[in-house]
Design a protein that fits this description.
Strand order of the largest sheet: 6-7-8-3-9-10
Number of helices: 20
Number of strands: 22
Low-confidence stretches: none
Strand content: 25-35%
Radius of gyration: 25 Å
Number of domains: 2
Structural class: alpha/beta
Helix content: 25-40%
CATH architecture of the largest domain: 3-Layer(aba) Sandwich
CATH class of the largest domain: Alpha Beta
Length: 534
């Protein structure tokens, strides 16, 4: 029996560069093919070439045999008829892939309408069934919701429902769980595995998470710089890697940065002191604008000492982001108190934020997506010096130039990099620039919000090494907000687990993760992808 898809000598050229070179693989019905490699390896371009969605100016050569057709020889009209019906794709970021102006119901029903299978009402009825199949039950009100009104995991399920609407033979999933917490990630991967089995569908799973691929795929293709360096079963590729690149990626995936032995916190006052903090949002819903209150943070108490690292973990919607906003002085508490370096951030009597520039300068944040948090029209020099307006001597332009240069050097970049634009850097370099911006006013506390979750494993190791070195030299305190418990395990002294706005478990990181007490903590640990190559 011939394979469902047989790719031979696939090469992609963009101008004078060739990001994909002579790629071969086959895919059978009911099988999962894992495509692994770091950013720039050609994984996504390989998938987009099969869909006929390469960027403008890109050219492809080779053969992608699909039955008696070569996908690469089909015109746009022929490919349009295949997309959704024969081959579907789930993209990495559902918030940008879904149309923000269309309801969930209309978007899931769209494949039926585009390919002329149903009228609008029948398509909406089918959308309800599809959402139930992907474990997102929805009544009519649910169909009328927009993408921004649901969680990241729910948006991913909407994309899956849209992709499988017409029962395609091949489903391409490009980093479908990168930004999700481990419990949601496990649920999405279980769902995709079940759909492959139920529909006898083939799936191409693209991810840099080798632990996920070791458990979920039948074949594994490892790519580097557009070339296939190793392929075979996960057991052979990951269990007995032959190529130096595969070995290096395997080592980086399990890397833990060296840390200096840390003494127990002193009896001195903590740097960050959160006392019985509660935060309530008021939302307006329904035809008659009925208001309701959502208690996002409930009676939370935490401390963080100078030079200490605290991990804040929990599933999506647990309250991590709301608590972070309160710490940063971006949202008032409804009850309780937050103190930084002995000064109150929140005026609990009037429920307003009371944050002087000097107190605000004592804490900074590093976001998950550095590219999205920078103004692309400004040069790096201006981007990094932005926090200096909090300092009393911020008008000294000459001093600024030297300060920015030193900040770049501190994070392993060159002083000359301040004359470039942010698009001229790689993802890891952008994150270093984000760290430099956080460091420039010499804060005492840095909040790292999923700061390494979107990075390749080797780059992630470099950034974690950098953070540990900076903590040692500057006596920084870190709050790591992360869904990657392996990162939390390796870089934090203590961990706090949140669920439904409450701290349900806290303690030394090693003890909590080794011997969890609460059921939610146990679920988080159980959901961590583990290598299985035996």
């Amino acid at each position: 029996m011939s394979p469902l898809l047989n790719v031979k000598n696939l090469s992609i050229a963009i101008g004078k560069s060739q990001p994909v070179n002579q790629v071969d693989f086959t895919l059978e019905k009911g099988q999962v093919l894992g495509l692994a490699g770091e950013s720039g390896s050609g994984k996504s371009l390989t998938a987009l070439s099969l869909m006929g969605l390469l960027p403008k100016g890109a050219t492809r050569s080779g053969i992608a045999q699909w039955g008696d057709q070569n996908l690469f020889s089909l015109n746009d009209q022929a490919m349009q008829s295949l997309r959704g019906q024969a081959i579907s794709m789930i993209f990495q970021e559902p918030m940008t892939a879904l149309n923000p102006l269309m309801t969930i119901g209309d978007q899931v029903a769209e494949p039926f309408l585009i390919h002329g299978h149903m009228d609008r009402q029948d398509a909406l009825d089918a959308a309800v069934r599809l959402l139930e199949r992907v474990e997102l039950p929805s009544d009519l009100n649910g169909l009328q919701r927009y993408p921004h009104e649901i969680s990241g995991g729910q948006r991913q399920r909407v994309m899956i429902a849209q992709a499988i609407a017409l029962k395609p033979k091949l489903l391409i999933a490009d980093e479908p769980t990168t930004a999700l917490d481990v419990i949601t990630q496990s649920g999405i991967l279980d769902l995709l595995t079940r759909l492959v089995e139920e529909d006898n569908m083939a799936m191409m799973l693209i991810t840099h998470d080798l632990a996920v691929l070791s458990n979920r795929c039948h074949q594994l293709v490892m790519m580097q710089n557009g070339n296939v360096v190793e392929s075979g079963s996960p057991k052979s590729v990951l269990g007995q890697p032959k190529h130096p690149y595969t070995k290096a990626v395997m080592t980086a995936a399990t890397y833990q940065p060296p840390r200096q032995t840390k003494a127990s916190p002193s009896l001195a006052s903590p740097l960050l002191d959160i006392r019985q903090a509660s935060l309530t949002y008021r939302s307006t819903t329904g035809l008659f604008d009925r208001s309701s209150e959502i208690e996002a943070v409930k009676d939370v108490s935490l401390t963080l000492h100078q030079g200490e690292s605290l991990g804040l973990v929990g599933a999506s919607g647990c309250g991590k982001s709301s608590l972070t906003r309160a710490i940063l002085g971006l949202h008032p508490l409804s009850h309780g108190e937050i103190r930084l370096d002995g000064e109150t951030i929140i005026d609990t009597d009037q429920h307003t934020v009371s944050l002087s520039p000097l107190i605000r300068a004592k804490m900074q944040i590093v976001f998950q997506d550095p590219f999205g948090s920078f103004n692309p029209r400004h040069k790096v020099h201006r981007l990094i010096r932005e926090p200096l307006h909090l300092m009393s001597d911020h008008d000294d332009a000459g001093h600024h130039h030297e300060t920015v240069a030193q900040a770049l050097i501190d994070v392993g970049l060159s002083a000359n990099d301040q004359d470039k634009y942010i698009h001229e850097f790689s993802g890891g370099q952008r994150q270093r620039i984000a760290i430099a911006r956080a460091l420039i006013i010499k804060p005492k506390l840095i909040i790292l919000d999923e700061a390494v979750s979107a990075l390749d494993v080797s780059v992630r190791g470099q950034i974690l090494d950098l953070l540990m070195r900076l903590q040692s030299t500057h006596q920084l305190s870190y709050m790591f907000i992360s869904h990657d418990l392996n990162v939390v395990r390796s870089v934090t002294d203590r961990v706090a687990v949140m669920d439904h706005g409450q701290i349900i478990e806290t303690g030394e990181t090693a003890k909590v993760l080794k011997n969890p007490k609460h059921a939610v903590t146990k679920r988080l640990i159980k959901a961590i992808p583990k290598f299985s190559v035996k």
